[in-house]
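Submission sheet (multi-component)
Chains listed below:
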Amino acid sequence: MALVSYVSVFFVVLLLVGFWKLEVVQSDHFSDLAEKNQVRSIPIIAPRGAMLDREGRVLVDSYPSFSILLLRDNLKQDEKAFSLIEEGLGIEKEDLESQFEAARYEPKFEPIIIKPAATEADIAFVESHRADLPMLDLMMVQRRRYPHGEMLASAIGYVGEVSQQDIDKFPDRYRPGDIVGKAGLEKEYDQQIEGTDGMRRVVVNSVGKVMRTLDDVEAIPGKPIQLTIDEDLQAVADADFDKFGKSGGLIAMDARNGEVLAMVSRPTFDPNDFAVRIPPKEWASLNADPDTPLLNRAIQAQLAPGSVFKVVEGVAMLESKAIPASYTTYCPGTATFYGHLYHCDHAHGEIDLHRAIVASCDVYFYNVGKMLGIDRIDQYATGLGLGSRTGIDLPGEEPGLIPSEEWSERVNHHKWYPGSTISVAIGQGPITATPVQLARMITAVATGGTLIPPHLLKDAQGLRSGSFPISDGTVEQMTDAMWGVVNEPDGTTSGTVKLVDVDFAGKTGTAQTESFALQARLGKHIKENGWFIGFAPRRNPEIVVAALVQGAGWGSSVAPIVRDVVKAYYDKKEGHFQLPPAPQTAGAPAVRPPAAGGKTPPAAAKPASAATQPAKAPVRSTSADAQPEETAPAHTTPSSVVADVGAGAPDQ
Amino acid sequence: MKDRPRVQDFDWTLLAIVAAISTIGVFEIYSSTHASGMAGMQWKQLMWIGIGVVGMFIVSRIDYHTLLDQAPVLYVFGIVSLLVVLVIGLSRLGAKRWIPLFGGFDLQVSEIMKLIIIIALARYLSEVHTDRLTLQDLAKIALLTIVPVGLILKQPDLGTAMVLVPVALVGAFLAGIEWKHAAIGLLALVILIPVAWGMRTHLKPYQQQRIQTFLHPEEDQRGAGYQILQSQIAVGSGGFWGKGFGKGSQNQLGFVPVRYSDFILAALAEEQGFIGVCVVLLLYLGLILRLVDNAQKAKDKAGMYVVMGVTAILGFHVLVNSAMVIGYMPVTGIPLPLMSYGGSATAFVFLSLGLVMNVRMRRFVN
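Outcome: structure written.
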């Protein structure tokens, strides 16, 4: 019987050793686990800052909504629940699995977002399965809203889930599932508007119910940014483009400081579609669309400038003094250089520089170009800002191309063909420019050489104007000629865009999109790209507008768009502006105002303070329900819309 | 020599230990449940203790010799009760263990069987008049034990079934088991374990799960492995001094499974620390040693076997429950005597202590 006592003592000692090991030796480890059990960190998403137009009108803002999270504390349990989740939330199992797999090596306490925009039914499902699906949780998120839908979309860009590369690059800044700017201003000013997410640490019980809040680090909302855009001018430009129904782009700037007043690119897209993860099919179709709706043509369309380039030619002629200002020539309608026949629109007869600009005589500038030579043309074109990026505060601006002898040898590996100079002289051949470059070039000519810095942020810092001094005489002669384009009887606009009481000037451009040889082969005529760069007043202009309509035919048909924007600018200035008839696209269908007095907020969010509390019932977003498998779109680089370099004469 | 047993002859030291353990238990039950929907459970437990104390007095008044005389009747009654429970018993969580009683209370019949097996084995062993148990004796002891064990397993209730075994083992040991028989028995066990493992498909899924979990706790964190892990976290995070009464997060937030009952030691370890566990385990050791002392002082062999039977069962409970809490044993649903919440279990402990008092009071009585 004594043995029984000894055995008892032995067992008690053994048990005490066991408790000692847990409570004393491994105490820190288990304390840590106990802490992790009960303390959960819930990110409080900071709303992105709004974007306002120059008068404070909202172009972009954010609204709260709910995302459904999959907590990953217990991977095995999660996987078992997939079928239930599939059933309850309508998320395909494969989708869940691929997301789950992608996050496998993330820290376990980082949840993944399996449904970014929960419907009321989804929220109810999560709430009612707290006990048996404890891995599901709700997170209040801020979603981007673009009240005007397509308006200014190409410039504003869109948001999407942060890419894995960005997370790898800035692990401190991004977490998986973060919404970041992917394109346009959303990307450019991401840091200013993104805000700082807060963090709430809560104590949860064994079924994940929030018992109390330990501490709160409030989210700091992103700061709103004010843009230089004028919503009224934007609406006017949009309305005109909608009437045209063709691809193209427009940029309107304050010619004194480079503030962008309006920016159009067609075709375009609705950034609301990206506010939630965009379904991969839609993304693919947007990306593969031959009309490249994601391209911002105002800064990315690199096309032959056509006759707009004659302004550069004229400046080069006058400033270099290689050709006397009084130079005249005879235009019979065609001319032959280096054995090739070159065309002109009309037989202009005896013609000087002024009339050559006003009536846009090609023969005059063939001769001027031949006399200047390619390198002198290059010098002035480059000086006026062509062939390089303007530095506008948007990602993805294209530089365009100004050829030179050096360029020919570097890129084409042969000497420059002098015949090519004849084409380049009228803005054809191996020469491309973007609308924003041409707007700035014309402004420089009209201001005596100030290269304004185009920008869309109202108080952009560190803006510097470039300078390429042009003599007053040249400025006078060139601006008078461009005034003539609009106002003189033989101007290329035929007097159709004259404005009463506005000193409106400009230059047309009509750029062939393919060579005559190709046209002959196709047996049809593809319409030219039409350009018009307009400004007012003619000296030291206040506003400059560059418009491009692809396949518009004559540049003169594009001029009314520019006129309307300039007119709107002056109408506003004088206080009698009227909006054009509201386009039917106004008010994006994807965004509906939150249903007032809808469902009560979910129970779990109740003990939390206002930040996770839905201010209103969650929005029933139409585009939100789609569940793509892939992450949000990354920014695309424009690929295909490089100028189809045509020429008055083939380049060989 | 006195001629009648007196209450003054109760083992007051033993009762003091029992009172201490019960008090700690009631407080810990309060701590575990006061913030939940089960608040007020400590009062029910106190009531059970009260009923148990009354029962203890009643049992102590009936001479254990009378009980031993009735052993065959009691045994048959126990077996019949177990059969009845299998037929008409209440099903809870897939097990038939309860017979409904008056006033909404349900009786867990296997708890009564514990008392009966103590008495039955004591009766049998006390009638063996040699120092050595023959193989025939052993076979009879085994048979007496295996029948109720089998019936309880059928309920199924692996924990309670297991509890009956040590009564027989300790009894056989004290009655003088031959070494070769013990060795053969051990060998048989070693062989039987793999056989039992081979037959594990006959276990209920939850039982298989528990064994699996015990062998590989990390694999299923929400199931039984989760329970063991959470229990270990509770114990480990308690540290040396504990988190303080009512302040254990694992306990208060419900991470510890059935923290008021089977895992009450985990709740205590979290809130009172290693120190608290030391106090409790030493109290239990005191209880066991005191019981052994009583056994030694028993007037006859029968009394000794009765007390040692009680000792074996209580000791086994404490050992298996404590080892489970720290993950050294699988989850079998064996409560910690006097501390875990539970009516039948608490009543059983007091009734068995009544038997002990019974024996003690009559040590000087002719």
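Remark: The radius of gyration of chain B is 21 Å.
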